[in-house]
Amino acid sequence: MCGRYVSPDRAAIERAWQIGRATSNPFRQRYNVLPTTLVPVLRAAPGGGLALDEARWGLVPAWWKEAKPPQATFNARSEDAAGKPIWREPYRRARCLLPAVGWYEWQAVESVDEATGEIRRFRQPYFIYPADRRLACFAGLLSARGAPGGAEQLSCALLTRAAAGRAAEIHDRMPVVLPEAAFGRWLAPEVVRPEDVAALIAAARADFEHYPVSTRLNAAKTDDAALIDPLP
Predict the structure, then answer these.
(1) What is the CA radius of gyration of the chain?
(2) Residue 117: per-residue pLDDT
(3) First and final CA of the chain: distance in angstroms?
(4) Which of 48, 140, 159, 200 is the most exposed place for a label (fewest CB within 10 A)?
(5) Percent of the chain whose pLDDT exceeds 70
(6) How far apart are CA 82 and CA 76, in angstroms?
(7) Strands (E) located in the chain
(8) What separation in angstroms does the CA of 31 have from each of 17, 221, 226?
(9) Distance of alpha carbon 24 from its chain centroid, rounded?
(10) pLDDT tens-digit profile of 174-203?
(11) Contacts of 27 (CB under 8 A, 6+ apart)
(12) The pLDDT of residue 152
């Protein structure tokens, strides 16, 4: 699963994918993005190209009737998303991209206290990032629901897959990170057959590096650039 990641600011996203500014909402770079918060998403623009929006990270399906959102809907397993009711329609008809700098995973490790010789066990966070250091995009699913006053409420989930490449050294799962050449078809409304969507997922990237970072990341309210500094 992927429960924390680093999101770029609006200006970086607009530069990376040549997106014109449609609103004045200047969302900042965030170094500790958590589920249920608003995150930047890219989707197909009505006139072609890409549109940049914000969505709640934690998908709420259009048919959801309860006042409280569903729990744990921020990740969707790509292997079975096509057949599960909560993911089925977005998988076929409402896909999006989540721009990212990288993501975090934790690994159980042991260290020896030099003073006492005691073995200390803890979960060490790692930052995982594209080897070329360029911005990337997670494959996402999108839901749009009506709200009072006619406003559209967007929510999303990111798709996960079995870990590949060096990311597998840290965790057994990872986000589906699409190559830029696949963005157009991923967002294309005419791509609706589950097997065609699965083929795009199968071509996901595996060129990632990683390094350990401070356990300051464990505090949900901590959000600063030093979180992605490598440990000495």
Answers:
(1) 18
(2) 75
(3) 27
(4) 48
(5) 96
(6) 10
(7) 5-7, 30-33, 38-44, 50-57, 75-77, 95-100, 102-112, 119-130, 136-146, 152-162, 173-175, 208-212
(8) 21, 10, 9
(9) 23
(10) 999 999 999 999 999 999 999 999 999 999
(11) 9, 10, 38, 40, 54
(12) 81
Can you state the percent helix, strand and coil of the chain, rounding each to 5? 25, 35, 40
- CA angle centred on 181, ends 179 and 187, rounded to 5°: 90
Write down the residue that tokens 């993501």 correspond to. 103
In this prediction the pTM is 0.93
What CA–CA distances, in Å, run from 185 to 41, 167, 206? Answer: 16, 25, 19
- CATH, domain 5-217, list 3.40.47.10, 3.40.30.10, 3.40.50.1370, 3.90.1680.10: 3.90.1680.10
Mode of pairing for the β-strands spanning 136-146 and 119-130: unpaired
137: its two tokens: 């995009």
Give the amino acid at 15: R
pLDDT score of 115: 76
CB 127 within 8 A of CB 106: no
* C-alpha to C-alpha distance for 105 and 212, rounded to whole angstroms: 10
d(CA 230, CA 213): 5
- The one-letter amino acid code at 8 reads P
